[in-house]
């Protein structure tokens, strides 16, 4: 039985992860920590893996504390940057513990990001629309940011120029966020959960890659996959796709 702790256990994702771990035959939920609970080996109660879904402002500190407390860590919280990744990698190395940071555990999102990266060099234009529930605190979504980085990198490696855009006047920011040349539009709407569209355009054709996570349970197969595999992935791993045979 894999002993699992959940950090952010009272949150929307944390509660869903607790239920998923409790329903898994090969896992035991040994600790549930939330805001105000110190991350100590004692409070982790023998956990081998901690799953961290909190808020972007605290996630980095939590991850360092978890690694230092002697557990492998599966992180779903957003807001990670290249600098934060580098610091997590250093602590993972120093502690001999492993950490996975994944902006989206939904398999539909994993494949959306992969397909977008593959297609991006073959289209003149690329834009991203992410659509979420209105209780989300960050924009653009971590998934959209990850997608944009992958798209930008793929286009740069292929020598593809920036998407054409004649916009000169945009005083209200109607063109959305510009992430290294990829425009990202964030929708917040009651009734939605988590969705992304990558739009790719060429003269006379369009490709739309869309994924929909209709509920939080949809992230759980990916989270449990990571909990089962993290032991075998030394140091820092970025993205669930690295743990999948794709
Ligand atoms: N990777 C993925 O597949 C997914 C990622 N996410 C991301 O996961 C994160 C959490 O989302 P969601 O569950 O909706 O958010 P919630 O706000 O519902 O949950 C966050 C929880 O973390 C708690 N918390 C705050 N500070 C700390 C702390 N220092 N230590 C421990 N717990 C703390 C909050 O407590 P309090 O409210 O009292 O402050 C709250 O209970 C977000 O970044 C979101 O974008 C979401 C879905 C899927
Ligand atoms: O806050 C959410 O809900 C989600 N957050 C992640 C993100 O920002 O990409 C993953 C998913 O989109 C749900």
Provide an overview of this structure.
This protein has 246 residues and is α/β, with parallel strands linked by helices. Helices cover 33% and strands 26% of the residues. It is built from 7 helices and 11 strands. The chain has helices spanning 12-23, 41-44, 56-68, 82-95, 107-119, 142-157, 220-229; strands at residues 2-7, 27-33, 49-52, 72-75, 99-101, 125-132, 177-179, 182-188, 194-202, 205-213, 236-238. Strand 9 (194-202) and strand 10 form a beta hairpin. It binds NADPH dihydro-nicotinamide-adenine-dinucleotide phosphate and ligand LZUJQKHR. Ligand LZUJQKHR binds at residues 78, 103-104, 132, 136, 141-143, 194. (S)-2,3,4,5-tetrahydrodipicolinate binds at residues 133, 142-143.
């Amino acid at each position: 039985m894999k002993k699992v702790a959940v950090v952010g256990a009272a949150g929307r994702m944390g509660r869903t992860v607790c239920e998923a771990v409790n329903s898994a035959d090969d896992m035991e939920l040994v600790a549930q920590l939330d805001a105000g609970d110190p991350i100590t080996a004692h409070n982790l109660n023998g956990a081998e893996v901690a799953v961290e879904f909190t808020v972007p402002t605290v996630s980095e500190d939590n991850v360092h504390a978890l690694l230092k407390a002697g557990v492998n860590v599966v992180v779903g919280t957003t807001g990670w940057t290249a600098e934060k990744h580098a610091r997590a990698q250093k602590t993972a190395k120093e502690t001999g513990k492993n950490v996975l940071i994944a902006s989206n555990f939904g398999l539909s999102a994993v494949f959306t990001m992969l397909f977008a990266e593959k297609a991006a060099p073959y289209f003149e234009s690329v834009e991203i629309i992410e659509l979420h529930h209105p209780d989300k605190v960050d924009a653009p979504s971590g998934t959209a940011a990850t997608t944009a980085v992958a798209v930008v990198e793929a286009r740069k490696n292929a020598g593809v120029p920036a998407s054409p855009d004649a916009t000169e006047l945009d005083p209200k920011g109607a063109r959305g966020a510009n992430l290294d040349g990829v425009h990202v539009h964030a929708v917040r709407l009651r009734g939605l959960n988590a969705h992304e569209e990558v739009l790719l355009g060429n003269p006379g054709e369009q490709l739309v890659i869309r994924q929909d996570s209709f509920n939080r349970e949809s992230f759980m197969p990916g989270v449990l996959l990571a909990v089962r595999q993290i032991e075998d992935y030394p140091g820092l791993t970025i993205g669930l796709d690295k743990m999948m045979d794709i």
